[in-house]
Design brief:
GO molecular function, one term: pyridoxal phosphate binding
Number of strands: 15
Number of domains: 2
Keywords: Aminotransferase, Pyridoxal phosphate, Transferase
CATH topology of the largest domain: Aspartate Aminotransferase, domain 2
Protein name: Aspartate aminotransferase family protein
Structural class: alpha/beta
CATH architecture of the largest domain: 3-Layer(aba) Sandwich
Low-confidence stretches: none
Radius of gyration: 22 Å
Shape: globular
Distance between the termini: 40 Å
Order of helices and strands: HEEEHHHEHEHEHEHEEEHHHEEHEEEH
CATH superfamily of the largest domain: Type I PLP-dependent aspartate aminotransferase-like (Major domain)
Pfam families: Aminotran_3
Number of helices: 13
GO cellular component, one term: cytosol
Largest sheet: 7 strands, mixed
Bound molecules: pyridoxal-5'-phosphate
């Protein structure tokens, strides 16, 4: 109707006049406007629907508008909409219990934060206080969030203009397609990446290192699934030198990889787990840190010097309880796993067979990347202009994509259906055909 079209125009006008956007030069921005959503689809003010194959910012694991989660937030708002963190709250206790139910034995406490960045911020603080050591090792090609230490732990370009925190050291993790170690097999990549990490530890002085912080599956920097043996090898190095292992499950956790936690695939036990995004699909901002009993005990008789007004906010807590409950009762994590192995893996492989632009397909669950190259032999990444054209072709066919550098990340909600994946694959196919023809 004309009214809803006018709302779309108003949204655009207010946005351009008053809203300052993340990670952008502000002039010339023209954000896509979303009016509503349900499941794996969103729609604009003109009633046009789009497949959300970005899950917004890879966080809407349970899909849009899940009625149980919406109702739980409404009920909690009517009961008690906010509470100071020092007070006890039933929703908070239940949320923590629901989270640790999926964690390894010996991890029983949760510190809640407002999102993923401050989850990593506090995990780093916990590791430093627990060990009495200072340095934090993390990888190039990682994203850990946009606050003091989290952004400096980050290994992509966003770290560089923000380097105010101290004590951060970076190393290369495994990435066989563009191996830093001249490796030609996953086994070689694992062996050499572990040797590189141990040399970095020895060169930094292992007794000065508080923690190794890793995304279990690197997300924004490329959906880099660690090769067999890598994460257990990192765990062994951490144990050898008395270093804490922090696994960042902010993007990979709660169903994205087809498991509750991504590390469930890799036979590794962290000391601290950071989470956000998928824990409640972002219906209310929240994140947190799951602590090993050993680290938690450090603060039994010693003050933990950290806190947040909204640590364990009741609306977020109610949404976590409802979201995790629905994920269990509706088999949503199992759906993500099945879609990954039965539908996305063969579907994306078939796409790669048809399109020389696709250099590599990698991923698991509903967490995939197509790496686009000018030439399969040289593996030279496609230029930004090609990615821009591709984005236009995908949007024109009503698919919201997640694009990063020379990659399409295929990251639908965990509730995505076979039919929706089939529609998306047809759209990727058409868009790639059009762009290839124009080269
Ligand atoms: N860690 C990872 C792996 C992420 O992908 C993100 C966000 O994309 C963060 C941390 C930061 O989370 P937030 O944006 O909620 O602060």
């Amino acid at each position: 109707t004309p009214d809803t079209h006018a709302d779309g125009e108003l949204t655009r006008q207010l946005d351009r006049t008053h809203v300052f956007h993340s990670w952008s030069a502000q002039a010339g921005l023209d954000p896509f406007v979303i009016a509503g959503g349900l499941g794996s689809e969103v729609w604009d003010f003109d009633g046009q629907t789009f497949l959300d194959f970005a899950s917004q910012l890879v966080n809407v694991n349970i899909g849009h508008g899940h009625p149980t989660v919406v109702a739980a937030i409404q009920e909690q708002a009517a009961l008690l909409a906010t509470v100071a963190p020092a007070n006890g709250n039933l929703a908070r206790g239940r949320a923590a219990q629901a989270i640790v139910a999926h964690a390894p034995a010996g991890m029983n406490k949760v510190f809640f934060t407002n999102g993923g960045a401050d989850a990593n911020e506090n995990a780093i603080r916990l590791a430093r206080l627990h060990t009495g050591r200072d340095k934090i090792l993390s990888t190039y090609r990682s994203y850990h969030g946009n606050t003091g230490s989290a952004i400096v732990a980050t290994g992509d370009w966003r770290r560089v203009p923000n380097e105010y925190a101290r004590g951060h050291v970076h190393f290369f993790g495994p990435y066989l397609y563009r191996s830093e170690f001249w490796a030609t097999s996953p086994e070689q990549e694992t062996e050499r990446a572990l040797r590189h990490l141990e040399r970095i530890l020895q060169s930094e002085g292992p007794e000065s290192v508080a923690a190794i912080l890793l995304e279990t599956v690197v997300g924004t920097a490329g959906v880099l699934v660690p090769p067999p043996g890598y994460l257990p090898g990192v765990r062994a190095l951490a144990d050898r030198y008395g270093i804490m292992l922090i696994l960042d499950e902010v993007m990979a956790g709660f169903g994205r990889t087809g498991a509750w936690f991504a590390f469930d695939h890799f036979d590794v036990r962290p000391d601290l787990i950071t989470f956000a995004k998928g824990v409640n699909s972002g219906y209310v901002p929240v994140g947190g840190v799951v602590l090993s009993d050993e680290i938690a005990a450090t603060f039994d008789h010693r003050v933990f010097p950290g806190g947040l007004t909204y640590s364990g906010h009741p609306l977020a807590m109610a949404s976590i309880v409802a979201a995790l409950g629905a994920m269990e009762s509706e088999g949503i994590v199992a759906n993500a796993a099945r879609i990954g192995t039965e539908v996305l893996a063969p579907g994306l492989a078939a796409l790669a067979d048809r399109h020389p632009l696709i250099g590599e397909v990698r991923g698991l669950g509903v967490f995939w990347a197509l790496e686009l190259v000018v030439d399969r032999g040289t593996r030279e990444p496609v230029p930004a202009a090609v990615m821009g054209r591709l984005k236009g072709e995908l949007m024109a066919r009503h698919l919201l994509p997640f694009l990063a550098e020379n990659r399409i990340h295929v990251v639908p909600p965990c509730v995505v259906t076979d039919d929706e994946v089939a529609r998306a694959l047809a759209i990727y196919d058409e868009a790639l055909t059009v762009v290839e023809a124009s080269l």
